[in-house]
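Usage

Read records sequentially. Each one opens with the input sequence:
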Amino acid sequence: MRPVLCARLYPHVALEADAAGQVAARLNDHWLSIGGFGAGIAERLHDLRVGVPLAALTSGRNSKGLGPLAMRLARHGLMEFALKAPGDGEDLVIIEPQTADYWPAAAALEDADILVLSRFAYMRRRGSEMVLESPRARALFRLCDPQIAAAIAALSTPRSVRRLRRDGSGASPLLGLLADCQIVFKVDVANDIGLRQVEGDESLVFWDFHDLLFHARSTEGRQANPLGGVYPHLGFAAAPPAVRPAWPGKKIGLRAGAAADGHEELLPLAKLLRERVSTRAFDAAAPITIAELARFLENTARVLSKETVDSDGGPAFEYTARPYPSAGASYELELYLAVDKCDGLARGFYHYDAGQHALVPLGVGTAEVRALLTGSQFAMDAPAVPQISIIIAARFGRVSWKYSALAYALILKDVGVLTQTFYLMATQMGLGGCAIGTVDIDLFAKITGIEFHIEGPVGQFALGRPSQWPPGAT
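and closes with the structure output:
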């Protein structure tokens, strides 16, 4: 007998259905409407609590009721999947989806295939559990059987599928699922190219383990962890003070050069810095104009010059100059605009061509544009969507081709520099702006068709005409 893969509700989720078959899910004190699934669905809800084999969800009467319900629940992130032992039905592995579109699938494997563990995969303790995950994977695997964990660790050395199946390895039933999630991958042992070079595409070679992990786990789209201002340590530790407690010792005052009345004249830049605020409410009746947008982009992000330079001791490298500084003059950041309201510009999704100082429409559907804008609204807790959401994406290889170990850190520093540049220009122009802490990297990948490790969001900035002037400060 082989282990059975089942779908079931997360323990913290409750389902209810009315007589007409309308199903709702409860998470803590929140209700979510799931949809209608037939008058008899109420009798079957308990099955999803204990678990239903995946094969049974797509056959017989389940294919029109319980199966579609399970898939809808999975898209809402309310389902997990358990690989159960034959006989006693104990959980061997529990699969937790990390993306909204994950549904278990097993990659086809032949006995002669050679598998090895991805260099991005890792096992760690989470509470009292052992989990196996990877920033490339759309799910993580909770390992309930220590023998399975040991068998997976042994895949640090390439092994044949035939050997893994023959020696009764506990990981054998998992192999196809792990390959589908790119936690293990096929390798040609006759090829003398290093394992780093043969995993994935050429752009994946640029990534160090810690950088890709931080990229995937510090924003939304490829993880299911709580995200944002949820105060996770409230009640355990006091909030650190806004100003650091002073070091002991005699202080050296720095106001000796101030005017006698204490109101020294501010430099223009100092004045801009003090006037800078975050704007979350925009004037729907008087949106930003395309002329203002053009001026904003020209003065913050346009390519001013380009040249190829032979670095001392290094290869020739093509450089540009732009209004903001960038690590090693890499200028890896690209701007994509989700536009809701802009006088002179249609609602849609655009790429800013910094070299030509032009906007290129990408033909993205209205639903996707709405998803980007509502995501921005939710992330900055705004009363409405911004007039324009500028998604700051990075061409990661542009930095990691040169730098090792600190490439992603440099990219984030560049995002901070560009964000401040946006704030100052918006203030100078009488516009409103707000930095946004997260963006859905998986949604961006689906919209653009670009793999998340090749080019993807690392920042976001809302822009428009503020609903009041001066705008309220934050």
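Summary fields computed downstream for this record:
- Residues 268-464 form a domain with the NADH Oxidase fold (CATH 3.40.109.10).
- The chain has 14 helices and 21 strands.
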